[in-house]
Specification:
By secondary structure, this protein is an alpha/beta fold. It has one domain: Alpha-Beta Barrel (TIM Barrel). It contains eight helices and eight strands; from the N terminus they run βαβαβαβαβαβαβαβα. Strands 7-6-5-4-3-2-1-8 form an eight-stranded parallel β-sheet, covered by helices on one side. β3, α3 and β4 form a beta-alpha-beta unit.
Length: 235
């Protein structure tokens, strides 16, 4: 049941995606009116592909959109032939299960976007939308990388603006929104919290923001934090 102890405006306010590293967080996000769930596992590794069982459970209990992360391992984003084949298999499997979209990214060994492989996965996922994740922040030329991500067919780009947090990367994030010119949604993420969301919203004119809403040493989203994020986005 949705938590209705707080009120948010139903207008053109930016929406909120919650990065969930377990089923409990996904349920909390759903119950507290998050607009979308990015489902993965292993918080300490920055998120990898979740278990099939977790996704199955989430699909039966959550009505908001679920985007599944496709990342076969922790570490860098240059993948072997076998790892790329596993990414293909996971997309096919999750697509049959009924997820709403995917989150992945492949770089080449020159710190650029691997256009050929990403394009292949985007095509495989079609018609479901795909998000290029924060591997973007490892690229050497973010403006070229933006064009490459768009060329691949991604609908959303998750980035902290090349810095550790979105607040630190706020200027590049605003610049990316301008240069994208509506061709792709720039999704600011990385340390996004209720304490800085107003600052980010004021500077970055985008339609979605991304947060784990984790406020302690656990891997579980905080109820109050999600509510505050939603409230401040609606102001």
């Amino acid at each position: 049941m949705l938590n209705k102890d707080f009120i948010v405006k139903r207008n053109n306010s930016p929406k909120l995606e919650i990065a969930c590293f377990n089923l409990r967080s996904a349920l909390i996000a759903h119950q507290n009116m998050a607009d979308r769930v990015e489902l993965c596992k292993d918080f300490k590794d920055g998120g990898v592909t979740p278990d099939y069982e977790t996704v199955t459970s989430a699909l039966t209990k959550i009505s908001v959109d679920i985007f599944v992360m496709i990342r076969p391992r922790e570490g860098d984003f240059v993948y072997s032939k076998e790892e790329f084949e596993q990414m293909n298999k996971d997309i096919v499997h999750f697509k049959k299960m009924g997820v709403n979209g995917f989150v992945f990214a492949i770089l080449n060994n020159k710190n650029g976007v691997d256009v050929i492989r990403n394009k292949e996965l985007v095509k495989l996922a079609s018609p479901l939308p795909c998000t290029f994740h924060r591997a973007f922040d490892k690229t050497d030329n973010p403006i070229k990388a933006l064009e490459d991500v768009i060329k691949c067919g991604f609908k959303t780009l998750l980035t902290s603006g090349g810095r550790a947090t979105a607040v630190e990367g706020i200027n590049l994030l605003a610049d990316l929104v301008t240069k994208a010119d509506g061709r792709i949604v720039i999704l600011p993420g990385g340390g996004v919290r209720s304490s800085n969301i107003a600052q980010l919203k004021e500077k970055i004119k985008t339609t979605y923001f991304h947060s784990s809403a984790i406020t302690d040493s656990s891997e579980v989203a905080n109820v109050n934090e999600i509510q505050l994020l939603k409230k401040k986005l609606s102001m």
